[in-house]
Amino acid sequence: QVQLVESGGGFVQAGDSLRLSCAASGSTFTNYPVGWFRQAPGKEREFVAGIGGGFTDYADSVKGRFTIYRDSAKNTMYLQMNNLKSEDTAVYLCHAIVFGYPYWGQGTQVTVSS
Questions:
Q1: Which pLDDT tens digit goes with each residue over 57-112?
Q2: 20-69, pLDDT tens digit by residue?
Q3: DSSP string, 46-67
């Protein structure tokens, strides 16, 4: 059983930075594709960033502002978010695919005030 626990969300002003963390247990993070999604009120869940197989991918809306990376020693994935905008306000969820099965964290709220 894989468990994902996010942290690092908060209330910030436009232009500020935040770093989200996703700690994994039950499996080694390094070996599987992982990523971040977000869901704003009344909107569909959307892809934000992903990492796997040595590659990273980003939604167009966050390219150049967000960076995804992972620390194998800590079995933790991060999302560094810079120059935050009000439209980045959402619940951010950690996602991993382990042996073809999707796992989700509980989410962490990010609120950006303009």
A1: 999 999 999 999 999 889 999 999 999 999 999 999 999 998 889 999 999 999 99
A2: 999 998 777 777 889 999 999 999 999 999 998 889 999 999 999 999 99
A3: EEEEEEETTEEEE-TTTTTTEE
Strand blocks (E) in 1-114: 3-7, 10-13, 18-25, 34-39, 46-52, 55-58, 66-71, 76-81, 90-98, 101-104, 108-113
Tokens 């969300």 belong to residue:
9
Q: Report d(CA 14, CA 81) in Å as an integer.
A: 11
Q: Are 12 and 83 in contact (CB under 8 A)?
A: no
* Residue found under tokens 């990273």: 56
